[in-house]
Amino acid sequence: MVPIRFHPFRVRRVSSLCYIALALLARFTDVAAQDVQVSAVPASADKAENNTGEVVITAQKRSERLQNAPLSVTALDAGTIEKMGIESVTDVARMTPGLNVVSSGPGQDILVMRGISSSAGTAGTVGYYLDDIPIAASSNASLLSLRGVIDPSVFDIDQAEVLRGPQGTLYGSSSMGGTVKYLTKQPNFSQFQFNGSATVSQTDGGGLNWGTNAMLNIPLVDNKIALRLAAFERHQDGFIDRYQIDPNNYLGALTNGSKQESANSEKTTGVRAIVSFKLEDQLTITSSIFNQRTFLAAPFQIDVPPGSTSSLMQARLVPEPSTQVSTLANVSIRKGFDQFELLSSTSYYDRNVEIDEDSSKVLYYFYSPKPQTYVYPSVMKGDYVNRELTQEFRFTSDFKGPWQIIGGAYYHHVNAPLASSIPTPDGYNAAFGTKIDTFFVGSREATVSETALFEETSYQMTPQLTARVGLRSFRVNQTFIQQTDGAFVGNVPTTVQGSSSDSGLNPKFNLGWQVNKDMLLYATASKGYRPGGPNNPAPAAVCGSEVASLNLSPSSLVKFAPDTVWNYELGSKSSWLNDTLFLNGSVYYIKWSQVQQQIVLQCGFNITANFGAATSKGVELEAVYHPVREWNFRLAGNFTQSELGNDVPGTNAKKGDQLVDVPRWTMSASAEYSATMPNGVPGYARLDYSYTGTTNSLYDRTSPFYQRPAFGMFNLRLGENQLPGNSHWGWAAFVDNVTNKIGETGLPVAISADLPTTRRLGIVRPRTIGLTFKYTM
Predict the structure, then answer these.
(1) How many other CB atoms are there within 10 angstroms of residue 206's CB atom?
(2) How confident is the model over 368-389, as pLDDT tens digits?
(3) Distance between alpha carbon 550 and the CA centroid of its chain, in Å?
(4) What distances in angstroms separate CA 544 from CA 269, 497, 529, 540, 549, one per listed residue?
(5) What pTM does this model have?
(6) Strands 157-164 and 178-184
(7) Cα separation of 396 and 211, whole Å?
(8) How far apart are CA 331 and CA 348, in angstroms?
(9) Residue 17 phi/psi, 5° resolution?
(10) What is the DSSP letter of 305?
(11) What distances in angstroms separate CA 259 from CA 61, 104, 498, 514, one per listed residue?
(12) CB 131 within 8 A of CB 184
C-alpha cells in the first residue's frame, strides 16, 4: 500500500498588523532606492562602519574583519543584494557555496548546508535568524516544504551572512549544517532618511508583476531617540495554468476544457518598525516589530504527469490557496563598559500557516474501482502555528590582553498546535453509496523548551596564533498529545501522548594562524545537534506489527531521539596582487550519527526513526578579483559528497547512496562593470550565472522522480545610480533567467499522500523582464 503522509496542524488565527505604514510611506514617492557601492573584497559590509572598504561580519557575535575570522562564511551587504537582484533566501543560496534551498515557492523552503539533508524530524538542520531572532520553525515538521521556513523580505536588510559548518556553540540546536543570518538596518540617530523603489516586470507565460518598497528614518531626539520604518508590497502574477483532472484518468487533464490561467499568483505585504533609545552610560535599548503576510493562490508547482518542465500545468479539481502570517518582536538592551558589553535579547515569533491541498487523486487511488468509480473533488486542509519565545543574556569581552570571551544563557520555548483533515466531500456518499463520516482528522499539541549555557574563549598565544575553545551545555524538554480518527485509520479514534528529554554538551575547538597580513590558515573541530521529538500519528493497532518487523521498539511510534554531527575542517583566507584578488577556501569532513530518517510504512503512515550514520565531505571556494576600479569579478563553487553509511529499513535507501536534496556540484560566477556613463552619472552593468548540479530527490532508483537534472541560470542587470541633473533618482533594468531555463527546485511532500505515478515538482520562475525606479533622500 502506498504510504499516506499525515502531518496535522492546528491554527489559532491571530490578526495581522495593520498596513497603514505602507500606505503612508507610499504617498511620499512611487520610486526609490539607495546608492550602490562596488566591493573590492569577497562581499561587502557596512561602509559607514568600515571606511577601509573591508568586510565586517558579526557571525561570531562580535564585529570582526571577514578575512581575519577563522571560519567559513559568506557575507552579502545591501548594495550587493540590490545589484544581484536578490529577493529571497533561494537567491542568496545561488550565490553561496555549500548552501542549497529546496524550494516549492515563497515561504516553502528547506535549507540544506554542507550536505546535511534530512526529510524527517521536527526541526531543520540549518539555523535561520533575523538579527537575534530564530525564525526556523520548531516542532512543526518544518522540514516538509509546505510548512518550511519564513522567507522574510530583504528590503532594508543591511547584510546577509551564511555560516558554514555546525554552529552548536553560539547558535545552539538545529544549526548542524550551518546558519543563515539576516542583519536589519538600524535607526540613524542624527539624519533624516527616506528611500523607496517601484518595480514592474513581466514573466514569460504570465502577466504583470509589480512591487513597492519604502523606508523612513526619523531622529526623534537628536542622538538620543530614532525611529526607522520600512514597508513593502509585492504582487507576482502566476505562470502555471490549472486544468481539471480527467475524471476517468487521474493521471490526465482535460486540456480542452476550462482552465484557470496563471493560477499560482502571489501577494506579499509587510512592515518593520524599529525604535532605538541611546541613554546615558553606554546604555542602548532597541525595540522592533516585523509583520509579513504572504498569500499564494496556488503553489509554485507543476503536476507530472500530465505536466512537464516544457508544459507548465497543474491538474487539480479544487483550488489550493495558502496563507502565511508571521510576526516577530524583539527588545534588545545593551550596556557597554570599558572592557565588556552586556546584552539582553527578548524575542517573540508567531507564525500561522493555512493550506488547502487537492486530495482528489489520493481518494481515487485508494478507493477505486470500488466504491469510487471516477475522480471526485476532495480537499485536505492543513493548519499550523508556531509561537516561540526566546531569551538570551550575553557577555562579550573587549579585554586589552590576549584573552577574549563570549558567554551567556539561553532559553527557548515553543508552543506548536497543529491540525489537518480530509472531510468527506459534499455529495460523495450519495455518488458512491458509501457511509463515510470523515476520511481523516488529526490534531497535535506540542511544546518544546530548551535551556542552555554557552561560552567561547579565545587566547592569542602569539601575535600570529590564536586558539578558541567553546562549549554549550543544553537541555531540551518536549511534551505532546496527538489524536487521529477517520476512515484512513480504520475509524478507530487514537490518542497518543508522551514526553521526551535530551541533554548534552556541544564543544568546539579552533586554531587560527595569521601567517602574514595576507594569509590566514585555520583548523576547526565542532559538534552540532538536533533534538528528537514526537512522531506523526501512526496508530499501534494498524502499524505496530510492521514496526516490530523493522526491529524498532513500540516507543518508536511515539517519539524519536536526537541526532548529532562532528565537523572537521581546514580552511584558508588570502589576498594577492596587492589586495586585488581574494581567495577563501575550506575542506571539511562531517560524521553524522543517529540520523533521523523518514520510514515509510506499508500500513499507510510514516514515522521518523533513528537509523545509522552518514558522512559528508567536500570543498568550498570563493574568489573575488578587482583588477581595476571599473571591473569586479566573483567566482564561488562547492563539491559535496554526502552519503548514507548503512541501509535504512522500510525505505529504498542503501549504504553509499547520496543523500537527497544535495547536489554534488554548485557554482556561481559574476562580472560587474561600474563607470561614469556618457551622460556624466555613475552606472553599472552586471551578469550573474548560477549552476546547480544533478540532485537526488528520492532513494528509489526505479521512480521517475528519482533525480532532478542539473540546470544553470543567467541574470542580467544594468542601471544608473543617478539620473542626469538629479542625484536622488536612479533606475535599473533587469532580465532574470535570461535563457528561460525551467529548473526543478524540489519534490515537495504532500500533506495528504504522495502517489508513485504522479508528483508535484517545484520549479524556478521563467524569464522575467523588468524595470526598477529608485529614490533616495
Answers:
(1) 22
(2) 999 999 999 999 999 989 899 9
(3) 33
(4) 46, 16, 29, 4, 9
(5) 0.89
(6) antiparallel
(7) 40
(8) 9
(9) -65, 150
(10) T
(11) 52, 22, 47, 64
(12) yes
